[in-house]
Design a protein that fits this description.
Layout (H helix, E strand, L loop, with lengths): L2 E3 L4 E6 L4 E11 L2 E7 L4 E6 L5 E6 L2 H6 L3 H19 L2 H19 L6 E2 L2 H5 L1
Antiparallel strand pairs: 1-3, 2-3, 2-7, 3-4, 4-5, 5-6
């Protein structure tokens, strides 16, 4: 499975307990699957599957991760490595496909239709 990191920041929506939560990060495509990597105020990078908004896993923002993400170029290299770990974790794609389908049904039933992902202008966010 090919891994591609989208350098364009995007607005994603994560499934929280009772609502969709708007966040900004980068898309990591792993084959036909789309994930987002979101730095969270809790000191972790949340890696979630985009179509469901469900968390796939978290990475602690420790000294190692901070050293690998202190420049734009290094951040995208690091996100490529995150994509490699996602590829290993997915394993059997038939099982993963079923989990995504069920996850979409569950989140839509609980939270309603997920808002669309959209590109973000970082300059606008900084203002």
């Amino acid at each position: 499975m090919e891994i591609k990191v989208n350098e364009q920041p995007q607005r994603f929506y994560l499934a929280w307990e009772d609502k969709w939560v708007e966040v900004v990060g980068h898309e990591i495509k792993v084959g036909n699957y789309s994930f987002c990597a979101i730095p969270m105020p809790t000191g972790v990078i949340n890696v979630s599957e985009i179509t469901t908004g469900l968390k796939f896993y978290e990475l602690p923002m420790n000294a190692y991760v901070l050293s690998k993400t202190d420049t734009k170029e290094k951040t995208f290299e690091f996100l490529e490595k995150v994509g490699e770990s996602i590829r290993r974790l997915i394993g059997n794609t038939n099982v993963f496909d079923k989990q995504i389908i069920q996850g979409r049904k569950n989140t839509e039933k609980l939270l309603g239709k997920k808002p669309e992902t959209e590109n973000v202008d970082i300059e606008e966010l900084i203002k």
